[in-house]
Design a protein that fits this description.
Enolase-like, domain 1, 13 helices, 8-stranded parallel beta sheet, TIM Barrel, globular, alpha/beta, 375 residues
Length: 375
């Protein structure tokens, strides 16, 4: 397979509702869409979600990276070439993980299609099969909006929840009580989005919520492993690392006491599938649980890529996030969106898998800023 052209552009799809947490409020997706064409006119598609507060990337820096690396990516012609590119450019990917993710996914999709095989076959992974259980994410809204969002999740049948704190203790107490009263058998993870600067404030706030959480995600400022370790011991609750865990080198901070930690593995922030799989291998060795996470506003491209990763770490998979599809987006960029259904589950295999690659029929016109959504 020989690559002929690489095209990248911003992808902004309006949301059906505002999404808020302690670090940001969003009305639309903020992604990079990459389309790679082979000499034989086969097309591969990829997506990345640059976030300033996660990887210090923006849409502009992602586009600049892709433009700068355009010629070297043209030389990739097989899976081993791609693996070699990743090995030789680790520090570059560390600085541009979401940008590279968008390119890597497109290359993988194209290579698999060119070989008339699935992404899993190309990468020697297990084929998708079985159920994938997703988490309902409750964002940092007022109580009325929270109740409306919760009721939508309850109608679907969710019992696994992640609640984002607002910083208003009374409001968050009311939300926890509402959730526990409506779903007594629920599991709840708390997401603080790096809200607190010291462990005492975090510990007091979380204890006053009056509930034992399955885990607490990013309670302190990014990279405060010592404080998070202390908090985990005090609360007797594991800490989920998201913004504080971006690459395999970050295991050095947690490998001596794996019992305190859970890794939120979002493919975009990790720099693609190959680097995500390497992190999973190390997490299996250390017996550190994994949450396969998602950026708000992902399309079916990243959802499908995350399924490939989740399917290969089931023995340490604590939860999956994302797969919102058109539950959140006004439209997806495929005519067969991948999103959770009844009880928050996705069941594989999909009918579309026979198409090769990620098995998605991407409608490129839906990625254009001038596109008008259906209906």
């Amino acid at each position: 397979m020989k690559i002929n052209e690489i095209t990248a552009r911003p992808l902004r799809i309006p949301f059906n509702a505002v999404f808020s947490h302690a670090s940001a409020t969003r009305l639309e997706s903020q992604s990079i869409f990459v389309e790679i064409e082979s000499v034989g006119s086969e097309m591969g598609h990829g997506e990345g979600c640059p976030r300033r507060y996660v990887t210090d990337e923006t849409v502009d820096t992602a586009l600049e990276f892709i433009n700068t690396q355009h010629d070297s990516i043209l030389e990739v012609s097989c899976a081993e070439d791609l693996r070699q590119w990743v090995r030789e450019n680790q520090s570059l990917i560390d600085k541009n993980p979401a940008a590279f993710c968008s390119v890597e996914l497109a290359v993988i999709d194209l290579l698999a299609k060119s070989n008339s095989e699935s992404v899993e076959s190309l990468l020697s992974l297990k084929q998708l099969s079985g159920e994938f259980q997703y988490t309902a994410v409750l964002d940092a809204q007022n109580l009325s909006s929270f109740n409306s969002q919760l009721n939508r999740y309850l109608r679907i049948g969710f019992t696994d929840f992640k609640m984002k704190i607002s910083g208003d203790l009374k409001l968050d107490q009311a939300k926890v009580n509402c959730l526990v009263n409506n779903v007594p058998d629920s599991t709840i993870r708390l997401d603080a989005n790096n809200f607190w600067t010291n462990t005492t404030d975090a510990e007091t706030y979380i204890q006053e919520l009056g509930h034992e959480f399955l885990a607490v995600e990013e309670p302190l400022k990014v990279g405060n492993f010592r404080g998070c370790r202390h908090l985990s011991k005090t609360l007797k609750t594991p800490i989920i690392l998201d913004e504080s865990f971006l690459c395999i080198e970050h295991f050095q901070h947690i490998e001596d006491d794996p019992e305190y930690w859970i890794i939120n593995l979002r493919i975009s922030k990790m720099g693609g599938i190959l680097r995500s799989l390497a992190i999973i291998d190390k997490a299996k060795e250390l017996k550190i649980p994994i949450v396969v996470g998602a950026q708000v506003g992902e399309t079916s491209i990243l959802t499908r890529a995350a399924l490939a990763v989740a399917n290969n770490c089931r023995e340490i998979l604590l939860a999956q996030e994302g797969a919102f599809g058109t539950h959140l987006l006004k439209y997806d960029i495929t005519d067969e969106p991948i999103s959770f259904g009844e009880k928050g589950k996705i069941i594989a295999p999909f009918r579309s898998e026979s198409k090769g690659g990620f098995g998605l029929n991407i409608e490129s016109e839906r990625t254009l800023s001038t596109y008008s959504s259906p209906g």
